[in-house]
Amino acid sequence: MATVRSAAQGILADDNTETREQIIEMLKKAYWMEIETVMSYITNSINPDGVRAQEIVESLQQDVQEELGHAQQFAQRIKELYGVVPGSLEFSAEQSYLQPPEEQTDIVHVIKGVIEAETGAIEHYTRVIEETEGIDPVTQDMVIAILHDEQGHRRLFEGFLREYEALGLA
Amino acid sequence: MATVRSAAQGILADDNTETREQIIEMLKKAYWMEIETVMSYITNSINPDGVRAQEIVESLQQDVQEELGHAQQFAQRIKELYGVVPGSLEFSAEQSYLQPPEEQTDIVHVIKGVIEAETGAIEHYTRVIEETEGIDPVTQDMVIAILHDEQGHRRLFEGFLREYEALGLA
Amino acid sequence: MATVRSAAQGILADDNTETREQIIEMLKKAYWMEIETVMSYITNSINPDGVRAQEIVESLQQDVQEELGHAQQFAQRIKELYGVVPGSLEFSAEQSYLQPPEEQTDIVHVIKGVIEAETGAIEHYTRVIEETEGIDPVTQDMVIAILHDEQGHRRLFEGFLREYEALGLA
Amino acid sequence: MATVRSAAQGILADDNTETREQIIEMLKKAYWMEIETVMSYITNSINPDGVRAQEIVESLQQDVQEELGHAQQFAQRIKELYGVVPGSLEFSAEQSYLQPPEEQTDIVHVIKGVIEAETGAIEHYTRVIEETEGIDPVTQDMVIAILHDEQGHRRLFEGFLREYEALGLA
Amino acid sequence: MATVRSAAQGILADDNTETREQIIEMLKKAYWMEIETVMSYITNSINPDGVRAQEIVESLQQDVQEELGHAQQFAQRIKELYGVVPGSLEFSAEQSYLQPPEEQTDIVHVIKGVIEAETGAIEHYTRVIEETEGIDPVTQDMVIAILHDEQGHRRLFEGFLREYEALGLA
Amino acid sequence: MATVRSAAQGILADDNTETREQIIEMLKKAYWMEIETVMSYITNSINPDGVRAQEIVESLQQDVQEELGHAQQFAQRIKELYGVVPGSLEFSAEQSYLQPPEEQTDIVHVIKGVIEAETGAIEHYTRVIEETEGIDPVTQDMVIAILHDEQGHRRLFEGFLREYEALGLA
Amino acid sequence: MATVRSAAQGILADDNTETREQIIEMLKKAYWMEIETVMSYITNSINPDGVRAQEIVESLQQDVQEELGHAQQFAQRIKELYGVVPGSLEFSAEQSYLQPPEEQTDIVHVIKGVIEAETGAIEHYTRVIEETEGIDPVTQDMVIAILHDEQGHRRLFEGFLREYEALGLA
Amino acid sequence: MATVRSAAQGILADDNTETREQIIEMLKKAYWMEIETVMSYITNSINPDGVRAQEIVESLQQDVQEELGHAQQFAQRIKELYGVVPGSLEFSAEQSYLQPPEEQTDIVHVIKGVIEAETGAIEHYTRVIEETEGIDPVTQDMVIAILHDEQGHRRLFEGFLREYEALGLA
Amino acid sequence: MATVRSAAQGILADDNTETREQIIEMLKKAYWMEIETVMSYITNSINPDGVRAQEIVESLQQDVQEELGHAQQFAQRIKELYGVVPGSLEFSAEQSYLQPPEEQTDIVHVIKGVIEAETGAIEHYTRVIEETEGIDPVTQDMVIAILHDEQGHRRLFEGFLREYEALGLA
Amino acid sequence: MATVRSAAQGILADDNTETREQIIEMLKKAYWMEIETVMSYITNSINPDGVRAQEIVESLQQDVQEELGHAQQFAQRIKELYGVVPGSLEFSAEQSYLQPPEEQTDIVHVIKGVIEAETGAIEHYTRVIEETEGIDPVTQDMVIAILHDEQGHRRLFEGFLREYEALGLA
Amino acid sequence: MATVRSAAQGILADDNTETREQIIEMLKKAYWMEIETVMSYITNSINPDGVRAQEIVESLQQDVQEELGHAQQFAQRIKELYGVVPGSLEFSAEQSYLQPPEEQTDIVHVIKGVIEAETGAIEHYTRVIEETEGIDPVTQDMVIAILHDEQGHRRLFEGFLREYEALGLA
Amino acid sequence: MATVRSAAQGILADDNTETREQIIEMLKKAYWMEIETVMSYITNSINPDGVRAQEIVESLQQDVQEELGHAQQFAQRIKELYGVVPGSLEFSAEQSYLQPPEEQTDIVHVIKGVIEAETGAIEHYTRVIEETEGIDPVTQDMVIAILHDEQGHRRLFEGFLREYEALGLA
To answer: In whole angstroms, how large is the CA radius of gyration of chain D?
Structure first.
């Protein structure tokens, strides 16, 4: 590709290859987090029983699409930074807290699992934002928007949990 | 809520409680500014008479929705940062410059009032952006977008004013 | 404006100036009731925590738009009757019962507040309908439609309250 | 429900309980009329044969939705007035004139049946409008709009009948 | 049509034939007023020149559709009351005040013409509302809604006129 | 308007003033034909009774909008050629053949009236197309498209007539 | 209809008249089940009070349309098999378990009623599927799709019930 | 294509080549039937004259799209079964009964032609369903859905015919 | 049909019968060309294999609708000129160059076939445009628009061919 | 749940518990196949480079949504049959053939991988269809529809492969 | 490209190469006129200040899209006539009269500039129409439609100018 | 404009005039880059021939709108910062690498040209982002979003180029 000039500035410049690869690694991790969340939300948007579960079920059902969109944004950005989106063999499940509970009416289990998942995402994305500061504003901007979604989502489920605690159920 | 892990990093971390409360105070002020603007724009989008007023009336009518949206975004963010959105008793009107004029054909009064209101908003939001730098990128990002709206709006009304000045009417 | 003929009949006729002003006063009061309701519903559609709160939160969120529309209809009618829509300095909060509760999971507080607010509106609008009978059918027709909305809304929240009472929570 | 104040004025006031119940009875009758009309229109929008029948079949098919909507409006209003929407066991069919004819090409039978049904509805709704005058403007307003639909519908089928009479077929 | 029962109550009952015909006459007059307004608004939404005219031109262009809709509503109601919608030979123009002015930039001429036309409509519709009170609530309800449109429209153009008067141009 | 250069070529050039005025006269006639057609089609889309009339009624109802659009196109073109769209006082009805018949089930009367009206339009528009040939291609192009609509419409109603003739009813 | 050849094969063939009539009987029963369900769901989507009821109310409200659609499909198929859709006099209510409860907050009553209704439908439709196997694949295919809807619906309400049982409320 | 493994089971398996080819032949015939129907329906949706013809004309016009869709489905399925969609030279017209009649108002001719065409299609598709039973469920399912369309369509036109017979016109 | 006046001018005038019939013949030919093209494009939008074929397949798939629309326009115009749209027995295939090739990856065969078909259409339509000049502007206008489509389409496929030639594949 | 009657017939009956569990196992496998396909298609819709890849990339991008929908249908059906949708820890990747290739322009690798994946799905779904025959028509019907999608998809990619083979690239 | 037959008639025939090139030159000029207009309208739809400017600003903003569409039509036609759309280096600005004025409230400058630009376009397009008469009806038809747009636009701005002249401002 | 208070803080403050002008200069350059790109993409989305070119042609066609939107955003921001959007005379072409190639099938020329153009844009926008850091967050935020678009676009065309290189064509 010697025939076309590379950008001399910014994250796509040849000088920034190493930095770029570090960012790619962080983006891959983010990608897998979102993919596993898609799985967990499908599961938990179908399994639970009960009227109160409906509110949570519908909330998760909508999030399936949102989280899938996040995954595709991360994958697209990996590509733009000259990385390769990993294949399914590299996937390894980590969300032990979002597996189906013993009893399908145990909604508190699901709520806590969602908060745990969102907390992990928030921590990781905060780190990405810090590390791209002044280096890759495009990635940073994209991740800030995703972080906003996750913070709002976690806040909602914290409210759910607080109610159950108040009722002595959590 | 000891049962779920808090985020260890970022604005939601337990260490950042004090900072978070300062941001919440600024967001509350922003919230009230937008709410009063909603009131003032309803008033000023209905009272004025005349052909030339139509342009301004329609402009303000559309802004009612936009400013209400801003208010809801600020309120939502207050909630996400563990604050409480204030009730109507805490409201205290400040936009003396946007009260109905003596004469409903006095459009210059309205134009200057809008510019004054936007100037106040721009100053306050600029301060929020500075104070959240490197601390709460999500709030910052949200406020930058709102600031852009307000700058564009003020620029438009400055143009209106300039014309009236050129005609010796302002 | 001597150059154009006034309508010789109906509420816009010159003979009916005094009556028109009484109606305008009642419409101003209605206008402020709706504006405060907008504020209170934004607050109470964001503050509450918990699964059960979701149903109420979503209901109030939709009502923000509806009540804003009512406010604009009242303001528009004031203008049509040759009145002036008041500015924000004339606003004075009255809905003490819709301020944020001590505890954000105290949903009964919100429900009772909404019923109180709707009751006040129903009483005031019933009076407007009586006083405009045979005098200003246009205003009357408009207020009947708004009254219908408020009655339906109050009925819904009474049902919510009844449930909490049955559970011994209200 | 002593904990919340009832409206002191209008049809929802405690003083008007008896009147309210009379209105509810009339609304229940209206409700059952519309429900039976839904059944009859499904039947008569599918059974008839022939090209000329098509025009009437399509007209009735669209009316199924419209009449169902009327039924739901009546039911909703019953609820708002503190009544209970009756269950299916209380239904008793009355539209003997809208049963399937001997011969599925006997379109005149259908036309006359529809006019009879609409006539009954018009008479009943006219009575509701008279009895709610000055007492329950919200119900009155709702029923006037429904009455308008039924008058227009009857007028259309009268035109159909007139044509068949002119052809010596009715 | 002896084969089907007439409604025994309300405006469509046989006893009310005379009243019905009086209402039909008033509706025919209303019908022709709207038709002529359609013509006048097409003319005056195309002829005027100038930037300030644009606001008025666009306003009238939208009203063409609205007024046509009113005409069709009046015609439909004439039919429902067993009247006959009149043919074009019965039309006779009356809006001398809405003919094209000498100079196509004479916008004040147009504004005054519109106010005159709306004033006439308001007076006539007010009379229809009074005469149908307690007799034909469906017609009354329909005309109140149309009256609201016309009042709002007149108010808007009065504002336009006031401005021109303030500028010493009217 | 000496300050801006006129087009030196085409129908808008100063040399073509006379020709332009002849075209304007023809366009005015076309404009009034369409306006009267709007009136006649409203009348005839509401008056007729009967099942068979429905097909024709719906057809005319849709044409009301189409013919109004034609009228607006003619008016717009008059303006573009520096003419003035005439006011309602200049209207004089000519479609004696489209007045309401004695009997509202006399559909043949309506069909023949529509054919007559379309025939007149086709003749007039054919003449406009001939006279603008090589002189004003924009007007010509616009009128050809309108002519197509009218031919198709006439063809449809001729088919309706043929059927009634076959049945011995016309 | 001797003039057209009947299909020599399949359920519409003349040889299959008897079988066809058996299927028609089953379809009529299915038709009445769906019609009664429409009634019951309107009733139970409006009567209940309370926050938890909202979820069920909204679910039933959507099902009103779905069940009406099923009824129309059954009626259409009866027609296609040369049967006659029955009139309202043949209706006889059977869903004693879906009548309004004593107390409008008794949601468990509604849930159990819905499950009972769906169970009856599932049993009847399973029988239809078996009896049409290899005989009338079109009816079979249509009923399988409807059965899927009913199974999913019952499963949802079983989940609701399970929750109430877990809470000791059912 | 030795490089990819063939499905070992189902209609696409190598063992089922012969069966697959028999199905393809039947699908080709179905394909040509639908293509000819497209031609015939265009012709017969444009030629007929008269009010009563309109119903049939519009019905056929919509069917043009539907039948074209069927043709494309058949063609697609031929491709999926490794067949080749035939070219236009292989087309040979067979619907002698759907050619334009002597007289364009002879609607009975068209109705009988449509019934004949649908009967042929129903017979052929019934055979396809039988022969694919247990062998190619995908084709079977697709054809059942198409058969349903054709049955419903034939039923509609039988109703048309019956009416004409009742009138002594067929 | 002596009862309605024929247009005295233009292509529909009685004097122009012969000319009209010549145009009808040309339109019939055009009609059959479009119908055969529909068939050929279905075939060639499904048969081809391969990635490069996709582009052509999608292009032809869209054209199926477009060409069908052309056919319907031609048929409609035949009708408007008092002709009869021909039946399927008059169809005779001519596009030998668009039959399926030996090998379904032979895309060049398809491309050349499409160009050949478009060339024939362009030639025929050019002739129609010449012969209707000054005689039937409506037909001419319609055919010019269709010609534009065909020219653009041919140009696109010529570009496809040129590429294959450059690659030595055509 | 002893309080409500179970269905006595069909797959949901108590007698069929064992069969139901076998079907659930097959559905779980199908569920995981679809989930892994989602992952693989995201990866392979973003990684490939080049013009020819675009066609495949877009095709896979659309399939991501389709396959996700399949997964949700399988999960829903598991729930309806009283099973539990498994959590992410039970996932184990199997599509070794759809991992990212060495070289991102190696499109043949992707094509073969997709065919392999679809082949596996077709085989498994064929088995499900066989085993549910006469036992659970609802599951069978759902899986037939999904099988249709997969067959069509595989056929498309086989066409892609054939072309590459013809070019000596596969 | 000897392998495909060229059209023997019309503008694409080999004999008409020279004529075609002359038309292409005129189309290139038209193309550049439209491109420059796009630039000028962006500039002049953003720079001006003031209430009265708003009307013009909005008008120009909409025209940006319209003029871009014209440019693309011209470019497409150049391609269809075997020409090559020129690159940006061939652009040379000519609209000296549409550069930003000294003072951004000088709206008369903008109005006159627009009229000048439209006049130039009208002259050039009139010439294209004349020169393609009888030679290339497709190009002619396309240009007539564009000419209509430009005439209407110029007429609008002439009206604006006339007003300013009447006010002594131009 | 002394009559209204300027913002005391942020980029619009009087103290920041010089900085603001430097930013305006950079925005003007960005504006012209986008405008030239619009021209180049129109040209290159119409000129190329061939199947493979289609993918690129469609990609560029969509980008025309996107790049025009960027240009308008830059122009709007120039205005907001009190600058003047430059006129067409200031344009000077620079994209020598995007002129039409000798041969219209030379797609590699186009691909390289696009990459070159995007590279230039990326470099310039990276510089803008750096220089506005901490000074004008609104401009920075807007440019980051545009930069993201350009990076993604360049990455896509690099993939195209890589393929051609692999084939030995670039």
So the answer is: 19
Query: Would an 8 Å CB–CB cutoff place E36 in contact with chain F?
Result: yes
Are residues L117 and L40 in contact, defined by beta-carbon separation less than 8 angstroms?
yes
Give phi and psi for K80, each to the nearest 5: -60, -30
pTM of the model: 0.90
**Average pLDDT of the residues in I131-139:** 94
CA J131 to chain CA centroid, Å, is 17
C-alpha dihedral (L134, L137, L142, L146), degrees to nearest 10: 10
Per-residue pLDDT reduced to its tens digit, J99-124: 999 989 899 999 999 999 999 999 99
Q: Which residue has the tokens 């790049």?
A: L67
What single-letter amino acid sits at I109?
H
Taking a C-beta distance cutoff of 8 angstroms, is the pair D132, D97 a contact? no
> From the CA of F159, how many Å to the nearest CA of chain H?
4
| E6 contacts E14 by C-beta, under 8 angstroms | yes
Q: Which structure tokens are listed for K155?
A: 């007429």
Closest to J154 in 3D by CA, of H142, H11, H21, I103 = H11
Query: Between the CA of residue C86 and those of B90, B100, B118, C29, H169, what are the distances in Å?
Result: 20, 7, 21, 10, 75
Task: Tell whether G84 lies on the interface with H, counting CB pairs under 8 A.
Answer: no
Q: Are A156 and A107 in contact (CB under 8 A)?
A: no
Q: Is K54 on the interface with B (CB under 8 A)?
A: yes
Partners of H68 on chain I (C-beta within 8 Å) are 64, 68
Rg (CA), chain A: 19
Q: Is I155 touching L (CB cutoff 8 A)?
A: no
Query: In a mutagenesis test of the H interface, which of F55, F56, F156 is the best target, namely the one with the most H β-carbons within 10 Å?
Result: F55
CB-based contact J160 I105, cutoff 8 Å: no
Q: Is the pLDDT of residue C1 over 70?
A: no
DSSP string, G22-34: HHHHHHHHHHHHH
CB G82 within 8 A of CB D34: no
Query: Hey, are the CB atoms on E105 and K162 less than 8 Å from each other?
Result: yes
Residues of E whose CB is below 8 A from D122: 7, 9-10, 12
How many alpha carbons lie under 13 Å from residue B29 in its C-beta half-sphere? 14
Assigned token pair, B54: 């139509």
**Residues K111-123, mean pLDDT to the nearest whole number:** 95
CA dihedral sign of residues I5, I6, I10, I16: negative
Q: Which of B1, B3, B141 sits opposite A144 (nearest CB)?
A: B141
Task: Give the Cα separation of A66 and A78 in Å (integer).
Answer: 19
- H or E segment and range at residue A5: none
Q: Pick from C88, E159, K54: which is nearest to B157 by CA?
A: K54
Q: Which residue, among G81, G75, G66, has the nearest Cα to G32 in the 3D structure?
A: G75
Within 10 angstroms of residue F150's Cβ, the number of other Cβ atoms is: 24
HSE-up of residue F91 (Cα within 13 Å, Cβ side)? 30
Using CB atoms, pick whichever of L115, L140, L151 lies closest to residue A4: L115
DSSP summary character for residue C81 = T
K to B contact (≥3 Cβ pairs closer than 8 Å)? yes
Running DSSP on this structure, what letter comes out for residue L9? Answer: S
- Residues K120, K124, K128: CA angle, nearest 5 degrees: 165
Length of chain K, please? 170
Tokens encoding F32: 């009034």
ipTM of this complex: 0.92
Q: Is the pLDDT of residue I1 over 60?
A: no
- Rounded Cα distance between L126 and J163, Å, is 43
Q: Which two three-digit tokens encode residue H19?
A: 């069966």
> Helix or strand or coil: residue B71?
helix
Q: Does E159 sit within 8 Å of B50, measured CB to CB? A: yes
Tokens 């069920």, located at residue: G56
Burial of G34 (0-12, 13-18, 19+ CB in 10 A): buried
Residues of D in Cβ contact (< 8 Å) with C95: none
